[in-house]
Amino acid sequence: MPFLGNPNPLNRHYALDHFKRTNDIYGHPVGDQVLCRFAAVIRKYARTGVDAFRLGGEEFAIVMSRMTEERAYDLASKIGVAFGTEIVPTPLGPLRSTVSGGIGFGEADGSTLDEVLARADSMLYAAKRAGRNCVISRKGMDKADPVKPALRSA
Q1: What stretches of 7-153 adopt beta strand conformation (E)?
Q2: How many angstroms separate the Cα of 104 from the Cα of each of 8, 23, 40?
Q3: Which of 4, 64, 78, 137 has an alpha carbon 20 to 30 Å from 150's alpha carbon atom?
Q4: Cis amide linkage into residue 146, ω under 30° from 0
Q5: Is 67 helix (H, G, I), strand (E, B) or coil?
Q6: What distances in angstroms separate CA 73 from CA 1, 78, 104, one per listed residue?
Q7: 143 DSSP 8-state letter
Q8: Mean per-residue pLDDT for 124-133?
Q9: Measured at the alpha carbon of residue 72, what is the angle toward residues 151 and 109, in degrees to the nearest 5?
Q10: Does 38 score more than 90 pLDDT?
Q11: Which of 58, 69, 70, 107 is catalytic?
C-alpha cells in the first residue's frame, strides 16, 4: 500500500557508531546503557506523530509525517548532537558514543514503507562511508561533497 503526500512519510535510520566495539570492550551491560541513553534522547526530541523503533542491534528507525527535509535534517542532527554529549560511566572511565543517520522520504505519487525504509538505509550507509558521526539526506547527496560536519555542538 503506497503512502501519499510529499515529503511524507519520513524515515530516519540511525546506527550507533562502533557499537560492537563498545560491547566488546566495555561489556553488554554498558552497551545496554548506551542503547537506553539513545532511546532517552529520541524521546526527548520526539513529538506527536513520531514513532521510534529499535530495528535490532544498534539500529533504530524513526517514522514521522508532515515534516520538510530541512526540518528533518535539523531534528536528526539535534538528536545526534544530544547523544554525543551523553556520558556513560564505566569501570574503564567515561564513555561517549556517536551516531550516524540517514533520512528517507516518500514520493509525491506514493511510496511503500519498504521503499522509504530503503531510501533511509541507503543514506545511513552514505553517512557511514562519510566518516560516521553525521546525518545525510537525499539533498545532501545532490551536492558535490556529501560529507556533513561532525555533530559536535548543540
Answers
A1: 10-16, 51-56, 59-64, 99-105, 135-136
A2: 10, 29, 23
A3: 64
A4: no
A5: coil
A6: 26, 9, 10
A7: S
A8: 94
A9: 140
A10: yes
A11: 58
